Structure formats: C-alpha cells, structure tokens
Please model this.
Amino acid sequence: MTRQQVLYLWLGEGALDTATVGWAFFDGASGAGPALPDGQPPYSTGVAALEDGWFLIQSPAPYPLQPGTEHGTSYLPNEFVFERIVEL
Model:
C-alpha cells in the first residue's frame, strides 16, 4: 500500500537553488513513512529536496515586483510543492 507525502518549500527567490525561508509538511502516511526534522528547514534549497528523492509538482508563477513594495507584508510568493510516494 502506498501513501503520498506533500512538502511545501518557500524559497528566498523563484529559483530552486535559493535558500528555504519557510516550509510545511503534510503526511498522508500518518507517520508511517519517513519523517522530516522538527524545528528546522528540512532542506536548505529546493535542489536538496530533489536530490533526496522528492518530485517537484508545482513551481511559482513569475510575479512582477512593484517599486515601493519591497518592505510590505503578504504571503510568501516563491512556493514550490513537492511530493513523494511512500510504501507502508
């Protein structure tokens, strides 16, 4: 039987080799599959996740930067979505 794990990585920029600034992990295996470390980014970059066997299923759409909005708060724009299938 297989289950899906999903990993969201928000990176500093829109490229897979930039630093992770946020993450979320959803485990469809209910803890029966490989876990991620607690309290720290599981991967330093998106490339590191690929090298560990995660599949990239969505990358961010380019977005225009507007002058004067550099310090505004909003959602994190550079969201990459990864998945892996684990055997139970």
The mean pLDDT is 90.
